[in-house]
Design a protein that fits this description.
Elements lengths: L10 E6 L3 H14 L3 E5 L10 E3 L5 E3 L6 E3 L2 H7 L5 E3 L4 E5 L2 E5 L3 H8 L6 H11 L8 H9 L1 H16 L9 H4 L16 E5 L3 H9 L4 E5 L3 H4 L5 E6 L3 H4 L9 E12 L11 E3 L9 E4 H5 L5 E10 L6 E2 L3 H15 L4 E3 L2 H4 L5 H26 L2
Parallel strand pairs: 1-2, 1-11, 2-10, 7-13, 11-17
Antiparallel strand pairs: 3-4, 5-9, 6-9, 7-8, 12-15, 12-16, 13-14, 14-15
Helix pairs in contact: 1-14, 5-6
Amino acid sequence: MTRFHRAGAECDTLVVGAGFAGAVLAERLANRLGQRVLVVDRRPHIGGNAYDYVDEHGVLCHRYGPHIFHTHSEKVWRYLSRFTEWRPYEHRVLARVGSHLLPIPINRDTLNRLYGLDLRTDEEVQAFYAARAEPCRIVNSEDAVVAKVGRDLYEKFFRGYTRKQWGLDPRDLHASVTARIPVRTNTDDRYFSDPFQAMPAEGYTRMFERILDQPGIEVRLGVEFDDVRREVAYDHLVYTGPIDAFFGHRFGALPYRSIVFEHRTQPTPDGGLLQPAATINHPGEDVPYTRVTEYRHLTGQRHHCSTVAIDHPCADGDPYYPVPRPENRDLYRRYEVLAARDPGVSFVGRLARYQYLNMDQVVGQALSAFDRLAERGEAVGAVAGL
């Protein structure tokens, strides 16, 4: 592949954002195409929302809430494995319902312990769900649950949690919000069922350091895009920030939900853990937060202290979750039309595409975006006779 560089340009590609989307594309462009890549990020650190650090108590924490890696994609797994060793880890979550701590996603054990039953087979559990399901046309998030498991389980596990998480009733949200959570008939208590589940052995930040530590990549932190967009000469732009901000909110702001992460640390002089599972969900609306996660479950760190993160969803703050409503998708599509008119910019990642994406999906999207850029560059080279 021939590298194309405009005379006087400071870099071949300017990448806005040092999270998964930006870091992966920067690495590919530098290593595979030999480009000079400048990565800028408004935050004082790399890694985006996956950034982790050692807190003042010596506990390895995730600043922006728990990030658990899981994927079905062998391509994504093999790519990231070039930059990290892995600690095998399967995430487990319990939900507090009344006096019970019950497995979530709902499984056979959940039902037996909640209702005092003795269901023993998948068929018996499926019959339990079928007897309580309320068949209906699936329009919203409430429909998606009650059509599968009925109203009582919906009320106990889903309604309150969803209302707190999104600030909206499930009837006002797209069905995908709750439909993505599986309901099981067996006793599998893992939160995810992907074939690849693990945590970076030295943490996410160390993995990002290795991804970005390439000849040809320069990283500038604490830098806003607006501070460099007219000062840095570049041939191509990779933009991973909010697409509405890129266009000056021309059609209005895209709605997001945010979270305030409250961190608390308690002594564990015997090196033990504070919770019976990594995450405890609190679906009841009598509790203002949604979940509590103990980081040492995730990292495997033994320490005399343990730090937990308590999630307080809110309307204002960093944009984390696109709000899945039809009018918001329509608004995004107006920005998408603008983006398609500018071949000099690649919009990649959660914020740039207004999508709810897991980490592996962002990596996959970035790898696909690189493939398209490489193909386009080769086509340009062929036309130019290079």
